[in-house]
């Protein structure tokens, strides 16, 4: 048995890269939504303004996740 066959890696490392890249947006969404809920609980009168800002931030975080997904197929 040849030792080079045992150490051979098959498949694409892009999948692992995307898995690692998905951690960032996941953490970002958790912090973003959690802080928005906390802000609304502290000052309910500005709930609409906080919600609007949260959705803008949510769009940017999701763009980063989709960018990582696309780059996994391009690279």
UniProtKB/TrEMBL annotation:
Q: Give one Pfam hit by family name.
A: ATP-synt_C
Tagged with keyword Membrane: yes
Membrane topology classification: Multi-pass membrane protein
Q: What keywords appear on the UniProt entry?
A: ATP synthesis, Cell membrane, CF(0), Hydrogen ion transport, Ion transport, Lipid-binding, Membrane, Transmembrane, Transmembrane helix, Transport
Q: Where is the V-ATPase proteolipid subunit C-like domain?
A: 16-74
Annotated Gene Ontology MF terms?
Answer: lipid binding; proton-transporting ATP synthase activity, rotational mechanism
Question: Cellular location of this protein?
Answer: Cell membrane
Q: Which domain of life is it from?
A: Bacteria
Q: What is its main location?
A: membrane
**Where along the sequence does the record put site: Reversibly protonated during proton transport?**
62
Q: Which NCBIfam families match?
A: ATP_synt_c
Family the UniProt entry places it in = Belongs to the ATPase C chain family.
**What job does this protein perform?**
F(1)F(0) ATP synthase produces ATP from ADP in the presence of a proton or sodium gradient. F-type ATPases consist of two structural domains, F(1) containing the extramembraneous catalytic core and F(0) containing the membrane proton channel, linked together by a central stalk and a peripheral stalk. During catalysis, ATP synthesis in the catalytic domain of F(1) is coupled via a rotary mechanism of the central stalk subunits to proton translocation.
What name does the UniProt record give this protein? ATP synthase subunit c
Taxonomic lineage of this organism? Bacteria, Bacillati, Actinomycetota, Actinomycetes, Micrococcales
Question: What gene codes for this chain?
Answer: atpE
């Amino acid at each position: 048995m040849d030792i080079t066959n045992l150490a051979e890696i098959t498949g694409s490392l892009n999948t692992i890269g995307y898995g690692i890249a998905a951690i960032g947006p996941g953490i970002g969404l958790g912090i973003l939504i959690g802080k928005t809920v906390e802000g609304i609980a502290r000052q309910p009168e500005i709930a609409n303004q906080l919600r609007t800002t949260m959705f803008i931030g949510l769009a940017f975080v999701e763009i980063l996740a989709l960018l990582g997904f696309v780059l996994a197929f391009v690279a």
